[in-house]
């Protein structure tokens, strides 16, 4: 193994990748570092970083690696990567587009069904003997035919829309711009969208420009029978406002795969029967992990061979 094959891996949550990376590269495991000064001294020759969309790579890590030329993100989220800074340094950034779309869309629908039909409450009733005792659970609500709104009609948003349409749900959406080629109705304002729908699915990007986009006004507009689904980033939803809305009945239910301070989920949220919680697991399928690994490994091999990368972001900002 030569020093030219040194890489930094930011997180152990790459189970399909770690074995192959350690076989083919000299891996510097960031999460195992006791002293960052010593770690960066040992990793000084690293030319690539491998990470995921949640952990990303802090700017100070990038700046501590003078030979860095590539950041490989296993996923599509880039809110934890300073892409502009990487461009300034001449560092290429790759993602794994397309491979997560189906799994995240499936998770959104699963959360919606679980929240609307109170599947976990029914499961608990059986396990705890409630059904045998004649426990009378409250009536649930139908999903089919409900009006749905999607916040962010990217590739994942479109996949969610197709699935909801199969439930005979009229779909509208909001986003940075209208997409006239899409068969769904565009609503320019998220607050107006919330007023018009019964189910609101958040699939927008994270980052400061979408932070708390779903706040108290949007939740109140969604209404006491409304259901919020978030498979985007926890920062997009004002979590305190959401908890208060669920407690007070200002919205009916929520299905959440992401949270503000992962993995720390507020105890009060865990205690709510009208909240369905998932541990940021939308992409945790065997198929998606295999596809992510394949693309990350292909990009690394191309980079170290001096060949064009397969899924590189443009080095200049697209206007």
From TrEMBL:
Keywords: NAD, Oxidoreductase. InterPro entries: D-isomer_2-hydroxyacid_DH, D-isomer_2_OHA_DH_cat_dom, D-isomer_DH_NAD-bd, NAD(P)-bd_dom_sf. Gene3D superfamilies: NAD(P)-binding Rossmann-like Domain (3.40.50.720). Residues 109-282 form the D-isomer specific 2-hydroxyacid dehydrogenase NAD-binding domain. The keyword Oxidoreductase applies. Residues 34-309 form the D-isomer specific 2-hydroxyacid dehydrogenase catalytic domain. Belongs to the D-isomer specific 2-hydroxyacid dehydrogenase family. This is Dihydrofolate reductase. It comes from Deinococcus aerolatus.
């Amino acid at each position: 193994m030569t020093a030219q094959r040194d890489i930094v891996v930011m997180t152990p949550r790459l189970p399909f990748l770690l074995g192959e990376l350690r076989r083919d590269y000299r891996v510097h495991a960031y999460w195992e570092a006791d002293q960052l000064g010593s770690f960066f001294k040992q990793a000084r020759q690293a030319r690539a970083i491998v990470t995921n969309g949640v952990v990303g790579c802090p700017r100070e890590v990038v700046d501590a690696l003078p030979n860095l030329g590539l950041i490989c993100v296993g996923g599509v989220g880039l809110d934890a990567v300073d892409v502009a800074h990487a461009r300034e340094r001449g560092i290429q950034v790759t993602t794994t587009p397309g491979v997560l779309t189906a799994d995240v869309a499936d998770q959104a629908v699963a959360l919606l069904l679980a929240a609307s039909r109170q599947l976990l409450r029914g499961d608990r009733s059986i396990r705890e003997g409630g059904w045998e005792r004649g426990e009378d659970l409250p009536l649930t609500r139908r999903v089919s035919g409900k009006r749905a709104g999607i916040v962010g009609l990217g590739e994942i948003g479109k996949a969610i829309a197709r699935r909801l349409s199969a439930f005979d749900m009229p779909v509208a959406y909001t986003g940075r711009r209208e997409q006239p080629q899409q068969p769904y109705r565009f609503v320019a304002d998220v607050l107006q969208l919330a007023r018009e729908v019964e189910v609101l699915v958040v699939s927008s990007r994270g980052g400061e420009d979408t932070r708390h986009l779903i706040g108290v006004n949007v939740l109140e507009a969604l209404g006491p029978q409304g259901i919020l689904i978030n498979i985007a980033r926890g920062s997009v939803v004002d979590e305190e406002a959401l908890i208060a809305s669920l407690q007070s009945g200002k919205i009916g239910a929520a299905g959440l795969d992401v949270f503000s301070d992962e993995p720390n989920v507020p105890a009060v949220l865990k205690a709510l029967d009208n909240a369905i919680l998932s541990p940021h697991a939308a992409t945790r399928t065997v198929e998606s992990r295999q596809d992510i690994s394949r693309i990350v490994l292909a990009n690394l091999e191309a980079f170290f061979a001096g060949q064009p990368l397969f899924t590189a972001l443009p080095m200049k900002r697209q206007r």
